[in-house]
Write a structure and sequence with these properties.
Helix content is about 35%, strand content about 40%. It has about 140 residues and is of the alpha+beta class. The longest helix has 15 residues.
Amino acid sequence: MTPAEMAQLHAASFTLPPPWSQTELEATLANPFTFALTKPQAFLLAQVVAGEATLLTIAVAPTARRLGLGRALVADFLAQSRQRQATTAFLEVAETNQAARALYAAAGFVPTGRRKGYYRATGQSVDAILMGRAL
Protein backbone atom coordinates (compact mmCIF):
# COMPACT_ATOMS: atom_id res chain seq x y z
CA MET A 1 0.00 0.00 0.00
CA THR A 2 1.48 3.35 -1.01
CA PRO A 3 1.50 6.44 1.22
CA ALA A 4 -1.09 7.99 -1.10
CA GLU A 5 -3.38 4.97 -0.66
CA MET A 6 -2.79 5.05 3.10
CA ALA A 7 -3.71 8.74 3.23
CA GLN A 8 -6.89 8.10 1.28
CA LEU A 9 -7.87 5.23 3.58
CA HIS A 10 -6.97 7.23 6.69
CA ALA A 11 -9.15 10.13 5.51
CA ALA A 12 -12.07 7.74 4.95
CA SER A 13 -11.57 6.27 8.42
CA PHE A 14 -11.10 9.33 10.66
CA THR A 15 -12.33 12.78 11.44
CA LEU A 16 -11.01 12.78 15.01
CA PRO A 17 -8.12 12.53 15.36
CA PRO A 18 -7.54 14.38 12.11
CA PRO A 19 -6.45 12.03 9.30
CA TRP A 20 -2.79 11.86 8.36
CA SER A 21 -1.75 13.39 5.04
CA GLN A 22 0.33 11.67 2.41
CA THR A 23 3.27 13.91 3.37
CA GLU A 24 2.96 12.96 7.06
CA LEU A 25 2.79 9.28 6.16
CA GLU A 26 5.83 9.52 3.88
CA ALA A 27 7.84 11.25 6.61
CA THR A 28 6.80 8.66 9.20
CA LEU A 29 7.62 5.76 6.88
CA ALA A 30 11.07 7.26 6.17
CA ASN A 31 12.00 6.73 9.83
CA PRO A 32 14.08 3.53 10.07
CA PHE A 33 12.31 2.55 13.32
CA THR A 34 8.88 2.66 11.68
CA PHE A 35 7.16 -0.30 10.09
CA ALA A 36 3.88 -0.70 8.24
CA LEU A 37 1.57 -3.69 8.28
CA THR A 38 -1.06 -3.87 5.57
CA LYS A 39 -4.07 -5.91 4.62
CA PRO A 40 -6.58 -5.20 1.87
CA GLN A 41 -8.52 -2.13 3.05
CA ALA A 42 -6.49 -1.71 6.25
CA PHE A 43 -3.08 -0.72 7.57
CA LEU A 44 -1.19 -0.15 10.81
CA LEU A 45 1.90 1.99 11.43
CA ALA A 46 4.20 1.38 14.38
CA GLN A 47 7.66 2.05 15.71
CA VAL A 48 10.03 0.12 17.93
CA VAL A 49 12.69 2.18 19.69
CA ALA A 50 14.84 1.06 22.64
CA GLY A 51 12.61 -1.89 23.50
CA GLU A 52 9.35 0.05 23.34
CA ALA A 53 6.78 -0.52 20.60
CA THR A 54 4.31 2.23 19.80
CA LEU A 55 1.22 1.70 17.68
CA LEU A 56 1.09 5.02 15.83
CA THR A 57 -2.13 4.58 13.86
CA ILE A 58 -4.42 1.95 12.47
CA ALA A 59 -7.06 2.43 9.80
CA VAL A 60 -9.70 0.07 8.47
CA ALA A 61 -12.01 1.10 5.64
CA PRO A 62 -15.51 1.78 6.98
CA THR A 63 -16.92 -0.85 4.61
CA ALA A 64 -14.46 -3.48 5.90
CA ARG A 65 -15.02 -3.05 9.63
CA ARG A 66 -16.15 -5.89 11.89
CA LEU A 67 -14.35 -8.44 9.67
CA GLY A 68 -11.35 -9.01 11.97
CA LEU A 69 -8.87 -6.87 10.03
CA GLY A 70 -8.09 -4.62 12.99
CA ARG A 71 -7.69 -7.60 15.32
CA ALA A 72 -5.34 -9.30 12.85
CA LEU A 73 -3.26 -6.14 12.42
CA VAL A 74 -2.93 -5.65 16.18
CA ALA A 75 -1.85 -9.30 16.58
CA ASP A 76 0.70 -8.82 13.77
CA PHE A 77 1.91 -5.62 15.47
CA LEU A 78 2.51 -7.47 18.73
CA ALA A 79 4.34 -10.31 16.97
CA GLN A 80 6.45 -7.96 14.85
CA SER A 81 7.28 -5.86 17.92
CA ARG A 82 8.52 -8.94 19.76
CA GLN A 83 10.65 -9.88 16.76
CA ARG A 84 12.16 -6.38 16.92
CA GLN A 85 13.09 -6.99 20.58
CA ALA A 86 10.38 -4.81 22.16
CA THR A 87 9.38 -5.72 25.69
CA THR A 88 6.47 -3.29 26.07
CA ALA A 89 3.84 -1.85 23.73
CA PHE A 90 1.99 1.45 23.96
CA LEU A 91 -0.71 3.37 22.12
CA GLU A 92 -3.12 6.23 22.58
CA VAL A 93 -6.76 6.21 21.54
CA ALA A 94 -9.53 8.79 21.55
CA GLU A 95 -11.68 8.40 24.64
CA THR A 96 -14.76 8.41 22.40
CA ASN A 97 -13.54 5.56 20.16
CA GLN A 98 -15.24 2.71 21.99
CA ALA A 99 -14.67 0.15 19.23
CA ALA A 100 -10.90 0.74 19.20
CA ARG A 101 -10.71 0.73 22.99
CA ALA A 102 -12.48 -2.65 23.06
CA LEU A 103 -10.13 -3.99 20.35
CA TYR A 104 -7.06 -2.95 22.33
CA ALA A 105 -8.44 -4.28 25.61
CA ALA A 106 -9.11 -7.65 23.95
CA ALA A 107 -5.44 -7.64 22.86
CA GLY A 108 -4.31 -7.19 26.47
CA PHE A 109 -3.81 -3.43 26.61
CA VAL A 110 -4.80 -1.65 29.81
CA PRO A 111 -5.28 2.07 30.45
CA THR A 112 -2.17 3.72 31.85
CA GLY A 113 -3.00 7.42 31.65
CA ARG A 114 -4.90 10.22 29.99
CA ARG A 115 -4.02 13.29 27.94
CA LYS A 116 -6.69 15.93 28.43
CA GLY A 117 -7.95 17.55 25.22
CA TYR A 118 -5.25 15.81 23.16
CA TYR A 119 -7.29 15.36 19.99
CA ARG A 120 -8.68 18.53 18.41
CA ALA A 121 -10.63 18.91 15.19
CA THR A 122 -13.53 21.04 13.98
CA GLY A 123 -14.08 22.61 17.37
CA GLN A 124 -13.97 19.28 19.21
CA SER A 125 -11.58 18.39 22.00
CA VAL A 126 -11.31 14.77 23.12
CA ASP A 127 -9.04 13.17 25.69
CA ALA A 128 -6.53 10.52 24.65
CA ILE A 129 -6.48 7.34 26.70
CA LEU A 130 -2.97 5.93 27.00
CA MET A 131 -2.80 2.14 26.98
CA GLY A 132 0.05 -0.30 27.40
CA ARG A 133 0.96 -3.92 27.87
CA ALA A 134 3.98 -6.12 28.39
CA LEU A 135 5.23 -8.23 25.52
